[in-house]
Amino acid sequence: MISLRKITLENRRLIFNLEVAEDQNRFVASNLSSVASCYVLLTNGGTPFPLAIYADEQPVGFVMITYGITGYEIPSIAHDSYCILRLMIDRKYQGKGYGREAMIKILEFIRTYPAGPAAYCWIQYEADNIAAKKLYESFGFRDNGEVCDNEPVTVLKL
């Protein structure tokens, strides 16, 4: 069973050591870099949610959710909206359905509105990351025609 958990002093190294497959490195930053970005975002008025993705008691991935600002170029719908800024499943655990199960949990978490109300959740993705695009579309995300940091923006109405 997939769950989202807080990153703690006890599990942080396990989360930092998770990696995507080598050919996916260009799609996502390292988890250590992402957690550092959360600190910078938090100290500059942002609302980040860095979470570990667990399959039962095994850490298998990482997600970084933000509310409002991201520290990067943002689309027109970003204010008062949630962004799934980073999402990864470790290379050893890919192809087992964990990404799909994690998205269910991520959207459940976002729909609790932990930082405030929102009409949208959005994601930027590399245009040639077809697997990610298909995953997002299967949950109802649709490209809105905007491009930020040279990446298409896909949006889900909450």
TrEMBL record:
The name this protein goes by in its record: N-acetyltransferase
UniProt source species: Saccharibacillus endophyticus
Superkingdom assignment: Bacteria
Pfam short name (any one): Acetyltransf_1
Domain N-acetyltransferase: 2-158
